[in-house]
């Protein structure tokens, strides 16, 4: 399975503390639309928010074009994840002769579902999938936990209900041919070294989503999340576990990536289990440090601390 990225639009302003808040469409911010190429016959597109500038676009384009030869061999069924800028997504798909078959929406917030109506206008008959509990704008086909979709010959997608950030949040677990590394598109539930805010759910639900549902996927699974918050998240993670060498190393790497205008996404599930404080709440030393007696209390406490943390 080959996965790669592409384009962005909009503005440079971004406040550090507005992570994954529902935003109005008029709010100026940077969005990064990323095209993920999955196997030789299909690809995915997602959107990431970021605080970087237009040179990032150039680097993504460079990466993208380096992979063009693989795309040229494809026959071209495609799905797009959270396409906020459908016109660019469609132009890119046409340029590379791939055909968008459907949209996978992780949740109802505008910076994920905000392009659905437009893409329906531009691609007549396109299906738009979204969680049945989430009132996703433009949704044509609601999905529930365990629902399966297929794309092209080799790509299978399983909807995983991962609620809390929103009630009906869905993560999409994607597998390709035998031997290919799977991927999961986690929207605003699981970030690299972090998790989404608990807008519509409880610590119990986030624990189930992160530490049961997602944690059960194969460790090499590549994690594609909805926003590039990695450096800040790792800085916060170090406040929870100052002596965790994996966090220290990954923070150092992530800073280098960002300084070079390169992404920190994807991560892997294994890396998240080693560095993401929200997925490490079963560790007695972390529970003890926070004065908590259970993984769920610990998760709630870490989220509270992160919500107040100014970095
Ligand atoms: Zn969100």
UniProtKB/TrEMBL annotation:
Question: Where do the TM regions start and end?
Answer: 30-46
Needed co-factor(s): Zn(2+)
Metal-binding as UniProt keyword: yes
UniProt-listed SMART domains: Lactamase_B
| Extent of Acidic residues compositional bias | 8-20
Q: Which reaction does it catalyse?
A: an S-(2-hydroxyacyl)glutathione + H2O = a 2-hydroxy carboxylate + glutathione + H(+)
> Which terms are listed as keywords in the entry?
Hydrolase, Membrane, Metal-binding, Transmembrane, Transmembrane helix, Zinc
Q: Where is this region: Disordered?
A: 1-21
The organism's place on the tree of life at top rank: Eukaryota
Q: Where is the Metallo-beta-lactamase domain?
A: 65-227
Q: What is its EC number?
A: 3.1.2.6
Family assignment? Belongs to the metallo-beta-lactamase superfamily. Glyoxalase II family.
The protein depicted here goes by the name hydroxyacylglutathione hydrolase
Query: What species is this protein from?
Result: Camelina sativa
């Amino acid at each position: 399975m080959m996965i790669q990225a592409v384009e962005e639009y909009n503005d440079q302003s971004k406040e550090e503390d507005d992570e994954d808040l529902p935003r109005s469409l008029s709010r100026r911010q940077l969005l990064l639309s990323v095209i993920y190429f999955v196997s030789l016959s299909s690809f995915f597109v997602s959107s990431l928010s970021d605080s970087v500038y237009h040179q990032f676009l150039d680097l993504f384009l460079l990466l993208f074009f380096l992979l063009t030869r693989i795309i040229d061999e494809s026959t071209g069924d495609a799905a797009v994840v959270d396409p906020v800028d459908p016109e660019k997504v469609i132009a890119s798909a046409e340029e590379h002769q791939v055909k968008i078959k459907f949209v996978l929406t992780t949740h109802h917030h505008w910076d994920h579902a905000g392009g659905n109506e437009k893409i329906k206008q531009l691609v007549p008959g396109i299906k738009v999938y979204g969680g049945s509990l989430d009132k996703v704008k433009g949704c044509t086909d609601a999905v529930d936990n365990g629902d399966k979709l297929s794309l092209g010959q080799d790509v299978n997608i399983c909807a995983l209900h991962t609620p809390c950030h929103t009630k009906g949040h869905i993560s999409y677990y994607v597998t390709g041919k035998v031997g290919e590394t799977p991927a999961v598109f986690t929207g605003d539930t699981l970030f690299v070294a972090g998790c989404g805010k608990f807008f519509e759910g409880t610590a119990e639900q986030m624990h189930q989503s992160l530490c049961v549902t997602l944690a059960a996927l194969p460790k090499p699974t590549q994690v594609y999340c909805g926003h590039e918050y990695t450096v800040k998240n790792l800085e916060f993670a170090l406040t929870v576990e100052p002596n965790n060498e994996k966090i220290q190393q990954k923070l150092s790497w992530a800073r280098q990536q960002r300084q070079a205008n390169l992404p920190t996404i994807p991560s892997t599930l294994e890396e998240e289990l080693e560095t993401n404080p929200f997925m490490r709440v079963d560790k007695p030393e972390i529970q003890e440090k926070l004065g908590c007696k259970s993984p769920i209390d610990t998760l709630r406490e870490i989220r509270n601390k992160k919500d107040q943390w100014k970095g």
